[in-house]
């Protein structure tokens, strides 16, 4: 299966958002990764509904929304209406995760669950069959530009094992600190989707950087 690259718009230039969206549209990237932060679940606030509405208007690829917010159930249908194709909630933010996953699917989106670096893969055992995506956080969520946590490799192996054992079709996404230095090792370990923020948008030629990442992975 082709490995996917998902540039994180958090690292884009917000004064030139349309330009950066068009860059992703015209690049070899596969998805738009959209980080929504509420300043409660994570110690940072990113952007919200009007911004996603503006992004959706121009984005021509899959919109992968990563919710770093408490009580995400409140906004599931809102994000569906705003154009999210995949909606990922944090395991640590959901009291009734099974219900939340069903609600995401009922709203017509693919369902993802993200795990913080301290959360073991085993917590997904009873929902893995229902999931389309698991996002393994390879940094503590809240900020772009942090360094990659090496323990992630071990978790990818464990998740791959769980997916195979349960015959789930779920994809493995890695989020945080992805660069050309670890991309190959991540896909070798079993990753399907690599999110990359700073490495893409802070580079001299983001289109070429996306193309390089895509080549490294495939
Ligand atoms: C972190 C976000 C990431 C972030 C990745 O909380 O979920 O998606 O944008 O940024 P980089 O690639 O710079 O680590
Ligand atoms: Zn993210």
Can you walk through the features of this model?
This protein has 218 residues and is α/β, with parallel strands linked by helices. It has one domain (4-217): Alpha-Beta Barrel (TIM Barrel). The chain is 33% helix and 20% strand. The chain contains 8 helices and 8 strands; from the N terminus they run E-H-E-H-E-H-E-H-E-E-H-E-H-E-H-H. It has an 8-stranded parallel beta sheet with strand order 1-8-7-6-5-4-3-2. Helix 5 (152-166) links the parallel strand 6 (133-137) and strand 7. The longest helix is centred in the C-terminal third of the chain and has 15 residues, at 152-166. It is globular, with a radius of gyration of 16 Å. The chain starts with a strand and ends with a helix. Bound molecules: D-xylitol-5-phosphate and zinc ion. D-xylitol-5-phosphate binds at residues 8, 10-11, 33, 35, 66, 139, 141-142, 144-146, 175-178, 195-199.
| Biggest sheet overview | 8 strands, parallel
Q: From the alpha-carbon coordinates, what is the Rg to the nearest angstrom? A: 16 Å
Distance between the termini: 9 Å
| Secondary structural class | alpha/beta
Bound molecules: D-xylitol-5-phosphate, zinc ion
Total number of beta strands: 8
CATH uppermost class: Alpha Beta
CATH superfamily, by name, is Aldolase class I
What percentage of residues falls in helices of 4 or more residues? 25-40%
The count of domains is: 1
CATH topology: TIM Barrel
Please give the order of strands in the largest beta sheet.
Answer: 1-8-7-6-5-4-3-2
Report the β-strand fraction as a percent range: 15-25%
